[in-house]
Design a protein that fits this description.
The protein is an alpha/beta fold. It has 4 domains: about 160 residues, Beta-Lactamase; about 110 residues, 3-Layer(bba) Sandwich (Glucose Oxidase, domain 1); about 100 residues, PtsI, HPr-binding domain (Enzyme I, Chain A, domain 2, Orthogonal Bundle), CATH 1.10.274.10; about 260 residues, Alpha-Beta Barrel (TIM Barrel), CATH 3.20.20. About 45% of the residues lie in helices and about 15% in strands. The strands form 3 sheets. Strands 15, 16, 17, 18, 19, 20, 21, 22 and 23 form a 9-stranded mixed β-sheet that branches. It has an 8-stranded mixed β-sheet with strand order 7-14-13-9-10-11-12-8. A 6-stranded antiparallel β-sheet has the order 3-2-1-6-5-4, sandwiched between helices. Strand 1 and strand 2 form a beta hairpin. The radius of gyration is 31 Å and the shape is elongated. The structure holds phosphoenolpyruvate and magnesium ion. The site of magnesium ion (MG) has 4 residues, from helix 22.
């Protein structure tokens, strides 16, 4: 931008600041602002449109259009050119507005006489507040300098926190942060909960968007960027040797040293913005682009830039993470995303977690499950909508967040919570009873675990033992490979906590969706079918051996139960079993105390293993069906793919018949069998699994109560008959028949 334009826009910003600071009532001030902009840029029309609710924009002030249209003209998001700017968060610049695609004629504004149109989004921290428009009769496209000047003005307007007060009949825009909002997400951990928002990354407040002394602002910016660079270099030095982390930080450094980023911010300052406002302007643009980027890599880089901007803002404003705000007593944590270690730091004090990004397989989800904290992921816009201290209700059954709920929602939601509390009381009353069905059959209910944080659930859930301890979680939540001594200490604590209850330690199950942050990723076309679990353990046995030793030392003379994941054929089991024997021998030679007894089993997660030779069934210590994987391979439907993962019902006759066949084979060879996939924790599914003969089910601790409650009220012989009748009738799935039977039972 040329100097003269720079000083022009600085002058305009100076005048704007005076107008904004004046004592005029809100509307008069906004009118003055549109007037000033139109005059300075030399256009006939300047208008401000603001959101009055989620998807309606309202004309709130204008210079040049019919003043009677103010607070009357409204359009929906995406409607007309103004709506298009708001939806796409992008500039629309055209010499021929009436001839443009999407133009909507609004006779009340008298705008048909204006040919050219320039609209820029008014946005703050990624939130679009409205649209600033200039128009003129002359058919011309606005120059890059004019577009830029208008963007700077929009940035300053966005900082007027009382902007919302201008929206007609009191439906204030700031009220967007005080009105109820319903948002949807994906359930990471079930549960309904209520509390108040606690932002993991508190917003940085920029109170001085306009600055008089550009030299001083440039100095401040340069100083802050220098501090940022030094900080990133320090992080890089600390990450030395950690290739993955270094790669991420290198990308950070590249941005921190980016000339383009710096130059744009310098230009913003030249136009009259303060250093903070310049950073925020670039951040808003990056966020708008982030919302549009379909390419994952690009999204990640834009998100790096977003993080860097936050750091820079904190340096400039001196606002650390600690803003002085106090965590509410019932915090619902809100974050764009969060790492497992940070989440563990918060611990059990959180009532709920809502993430804007994340996924059901993420490490944060694993931790939230261990801590039994309701979690929703993929809740778009939560970080921009929610403010610290806002009242919030999280429905981790339906995947809904009620932010600032109104009274009707509060009442209905509290009823739901009360019902859940009632059910919990009921489950607590049967906690120490066996899961004995009416027909007399007893099912052993065990829990799945993986973190130390899971262990308190062992006594409180009524689990008879840990049917699946996913050892990879300890590897996944760290930034580097854990040491043998560290693992051994953790496993010993698990065994201590379990006391006489049995713990089935599953050896490292990595690969596919479970990628260790510190291991070189293997670029596989189909990771679920790739180099994972025991395949890695056998090909590169170093880690497996280290883990086996850690487990044996943790047992320290106690009984030890081991299980290998993803065994697809007999030979894999025998090879893995041989590693156990070798490890035992090594421990003996080294003079360590050996486990009192050692049981070695395998997970049945591929259809192939169900058809292994009988000799395998005779030899293996026990089998546990990993239903999550088994189902995905049985139906050829990716468990991670939302589009297909629910397509095939566990109660599909084919799948149930297949499981029955496994039950029969195990019965013939007297091989102990359990089921430890997620389905074991779903009452109806668990009931059917028990009916077809499974006598050990391992599940999330919170599922034990509901599953036990249903089992105790059911007759497994009858359920088995319902299943076989449905099968004989040729039904594809037994669920409808089971549901009808249960309804009839009341
Ligand atoms: C399974 O596949 O069912 C299982 C229990 O293992 P994971 O979910 O850890 O793959
Ligand atoms: Mg599995």
């Amino acid at each position: 931008m040329v100097d003269s334009t720079e000083s022009e826009s600085r002058k305009l910003l100076g005048r704007l600041r005076d107008a904004m600071a004046g004592d005029d009532p809100g509307q008069a001030r906004l009118d003055k602002i549109t007037n000033l902009i139109a005059g300075s840029i030399g256009v006939e029309v300047c208008s401000v449109y603001l959101f009055r609710d989620e998807d309606t924009l309202e004309l709130c002030a204008t210079q040049g259009l019919n003043p009677d249209a103010v607070h009357k003209t409204r359009m929906r998001l995406g409607e007309g050119l103004v709506g298009k700017v708001a939806r796409r968060r992008q500039v629309v610049n055209t010499a021929d507005a009436p001839g443009s695609k999407g133009f909507r004629f609004m006779p009340e504004t008298g705008e048909e006489v204006f040919s050219s149109f320039l609209g820029v989004p008014i946005q703050r921290l990624g939130e679009t507040l409205g649209v600033l428009v200039v128009q003129s009769k002359e058919a011309r496209e606005y120059s890059a300098d004019e577009v830029y000047a208008l963007e700077v003005v929009a940035m300053v307007l966005a900082e007027m926190t009382e902007l919302g007060a201008f929206v007609g009949d009191g439906a204030a825009l700031t009220a967007r942060h005080s009105q109820p909002v319903l948002m949807r997400g994906v359930v990471g951990q079930e549960g309904v909960t209520e509390g108040h928002i606690w932002l993991h990354e508190p917003r940085v407040v920029v109170s001085n968007p306009i600055a008089d002394d550009p030299e001083k602002e440039l100095e401040r910016l340069k100083g802050a960027v220098e501090e940022l660079r030094v900080g990133v270099d320090k992080m890089l030095a600390m990450a030395a040797g950690d290739a993955e982390q270094s790669e991420v930080l290198e990308a950070y450094r590249m941005f921190a040293n980016s000339r383009g980023w710096m130059r744009r911010m310098e230009e913003d300052i030249g136009s009259g913005l303060s250093a903070e406002a310049a950073v925020e302007k670039e951040q808003s643009l990056a966020r708008a682009r982030m919302g549009q980027a379909t390419d994952n890599y690009l999204r990640e880089r834009l998100s790096d830039l977003d993080d860097l901007s936050n750091r820079l803002l904190r340096i400039l404003t001196g606002q650390g993470k600690d803003t002085g705000a106090e965590m509410p007593p019932d915090p619902i944590l809100v974050a764009r995303n969060i790492g497992p270690a940070e989440l563990l730091d918060y611990g059990r004090g959180l009532r709920g977690i809502v993430l804007e990004e994340g996924s059901v397989g993420s490490h944060a989800t694993i931790v939230a499950r261990a801590l039994a904290i309701p979690l929703l992921v993929n809740v778009g816009r939560i970080t921009t909508e929610a403010l610290n201290g806002d009242h919030v209700m999280v429905d981790g059954e339906q995947g809904i967040v009620h932010l600032r709920p109104d009274d009707t929602v509060v009442t209905a939601f509290r009823d739901k919570m009360a019902m859940e509390a009632e059910a919990l009381k009921r489950y607590a009353s049967i906690r120490d009873k066996p899961a004995q069905a009416k027909c007399g059959s007893v099912v052993s209910l065990q829990m799945n675990a993986g973190l130390l944080a899971d262990l308190p659930s062992l006594p409180t859930s009524g689990a008879e033992g840990v049917g699946l301890f996913r050892t990879e979680l300890q590897f996944l939540i760290r930034n580097q490979m854990p040491r043998r001594s560290e693992l051994s200490a953790i496993y010993a604590r698990v065994l201590d906590a379990a006391g006489t209850k049995r713990v089935v330690f599953r050896t490292l199950d990595i690969g596919s969706d479970k990628v260790l942050p510190y291991m070189k990723p293997t670029d596989e076309p189909n990771p679920a079918l790739g180099w994972r679990a025991i395949r890695v353990g056998l090909d590169k046995p170093g880690v497996l051996r280290m883990q086996l030793q850690a487990l044996m030392r943790a047992a320290n003379g106690r009984a030890l139960t081991l299980m290998f994941p993803f065994v697809a054929q007999y030979e894999e089991y025998t090879r893995a079993r041989a590693e156990v024997d070798k490890a035992l021998e090594r421990e003996r030679r080294l003079g360590h105390i050996l486990p009192e007894s050692i049981e070695v089993g395998a997970m049945l997660e591929t259809p192939s293993l169900a058809f292994a030779p009988t000799k395998f069934f005779e030899e293996v210590g026990f089998l546990s069906i990993g239903g999550n994987d088994l189902k995905q391979f049985f139906f050829a439907a990716d468990r991670e793919n939302e589009r297909v993962r629910r397509r095939y019902d566990t109660l599909n006759v084919s799948f149930l018949s297949f499981i029955e066949r496994i039950v029969e084979r195990c019965a013939l060879t007297r091989t102990p069998l359990s089921f430890c996939g997620e389905d074991a924790g779903r009452p109806i599914e668990a009931l059917c699994l028990a009916a077809i003969g499974l006598r050990t089910l391992s599940m999330r601790p919170a599922s034990i109560g509901p599953v036990k409650s249903l089992l105790m009220r059911s007759n497994l012989d009858e359920v088995r008959k319902v299943i076989s009748d449905a099968r004989h009738r040729g039904e594809m799935c037994v669920r409808p028949a089971i549901m009808e039977y249960l309804r009839a039972q009341g």
